[in-house]
Structures are given as C-alpha cells and as structure tokens.
Amino acid sequence: MSGSVVDPGMHLFDLHADDVPPADPFALARQWLPGDDEPDRPRVTLSTIGEDGYPDARTVLLSAFDDTGFAFHTAATSRKVAELAAAPRAALTVLWPDHQRQLVVRGDVVPDAPGSAVTAWRARTAYLRQLAWLNTDELAGLPLDERRARWAAFTTRPGLPSPADSWTGYRLQPRELTFWAAHPDTASRRLQYVRADDGWRTAHLAG
Ligand SMILES: Cc1cc2nc3c(=O)[nH]c(=O)nc-3n(C[C@H](O)[C@H](O)[C@H](O)COP(=O)(O)O)c2cc1C
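# flavin mononucleotide complex -> structure
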C-alpha cells in the first residue's frame, strides 16, 4: 500500500508542516489511501465491542473508501457481525507498511449500499472467493486431509462469479479520524478530526 494519490497533481499535505491542515479529513485520507481500483487492498484492524463487553479485533481488507466511510466485507455468520448487530460501532486502524503513518477511524457502522457486495466480490482473488464460500467452523474442525479434499472438490467450480451466500458489506461512518505520522528528527505527531455540527474540529496531539 503506497498511499499513492488519486490525483497525481494534488498537493500532498505533510502532517508535520506548519501549514493549516485540510478542513476535510476525507481529502487527507484520499491522499493517504490507495484508490478503490487498486487490487492490493489495505489490511486494516477492525475493532468491535465484544458481546462479553471486552474489545474484539481482527484484520480485514478495506474494500472501498469515500466520503461516506470505509467499507469492509465479511461473512454474515461471523462473530463481528453479531457484535455489530448488538453494538453498531467500531474502530478501524490502518498501519502503513513502513510504519511511518497510521490512521485510526472511529464511528458508526451501517450495512453498505446494495451492490457493494458484488463490486467487492469481483475485486477479490479466486482464493478469497473460494474461502468466502467454504470458510466455516465446521470445516475448521475437520482433519487436514478432509479439509484438503473439500477444498479440492470446490476448486472445480470455475470463477465463482456470485458472492457467497453469507457475503455481506458494512460501512464505518467516521465521527473521528486521527492521522499519525512519524518524523526522523522530532516526535511523531497526530492530527485529529472530530465531527461537529458545523464541520470538523481539528487538533494536534502527541504522537
Ligand atoms: C490479511 C488478512 C485479511 C483478512 N481479510 C478479511 C476480510 O476482508 N473479511 C473477513 O471477513 N475476514 C478477513 N480476514 C479474517 C479475519 O481476520 C477473521 O479471522 C475472520 O473474519 C473472523 O473474524 P470474527 O470471528 O471476529 O468475525 C482476514 C485475515 C487476514 C490475516
């Protein structure tokens, strides 16, 4: 994930510069995150509120991102979906591979727009499509030979053009976005945006 920008002519805002930050956090996020059409999707940590009251977390692929939020796709039968049904709030952490940048987004989670599941499905590799169809606790409990046999039997279905029955999309709608950047000669620094009635409030925080 390079964080390459949609518009190559766009001025890349430096979090450590003395300039006034962009008023719109999504403008900054667009500079940092790859476009939705880039096949190598960011791996992000999705944190939810466990049904036992403890935080829960796991890695997911960021399927898409725009001013309405951050979309991810998963199995409707998964624990995260049960947790989101009980408490539709989450945090999403993006760490850049060089460890020089981090973005933490907190907000409300809603079902993603109809059609998003098909778009995200088409962008998944053949392996991930098959995984989405076969990935059950029942399979996970079987001996390796049996798991291999079931995987091989399924591989005969070419392409898997339709999303798995349980495949579903959600969108995290940010109420807070916190951008973190390292610096070689001084302390790391964060730029936090908090949603307000009339736009976004910004603050610089210790890294
Ligand atoms: C690199 C990576 C990418 C993953 N991407 C997804 C994904 O996009 N969607 C998903 O449901 N699970 C994904 N997983 C699996 C989840 O981390 C998790 O194990 C699974 O969704 C079950 O989580 P839950 O029981 O908390 O619901 C990914 C795991 C890794 C390591």
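# post-check
The radius of gyration is 19 Å.
The CA atoms of residues 192 and 203 lie 5 Å apart.
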